[in-house]
Amino acid sequence: MSGNPASNGAADGPNAAVVVGVVFSAIVVLTVIAYTVTVTTVNLLAVDLLAYPVGGVAPFVVITGAILTIPIIIPTALISMKRLG
Q1: How far apart (Å, rounded) are the C-alpha atoms in residues 45 and 52?
Q2: What pLDDT was estimated at residue 10?
Q3: pTM of the predicted protein model
C-alpha cells in the first residue's frame, strides 16, 4: 500500500488510432452500401420504369451522395476528438 496506483499498460484499452480507423472503415462501408442501394433503386424506378432521362435524375443521385457523406464526417470527427484528444 504505497499509495501509487499500479501502472498496467494492458488496462488502458485499445489503441485510439486503431479504434478510429475501424470505426471510419465501418461507416464508409455502410455508406457505400447505402449509396449503391439508392443509385440502383433510383435507376430502376426513375430511369427504367418511368423512363425519365438520365440527365434529369443525375442531380438527385449526386445530392444523395453528398448527403450520405454526413454519416462519415460526424461520427468520425466525434470519435477522433474523444479518442485522440
Answers
A1: 9
A2: 53
A3: 0.65
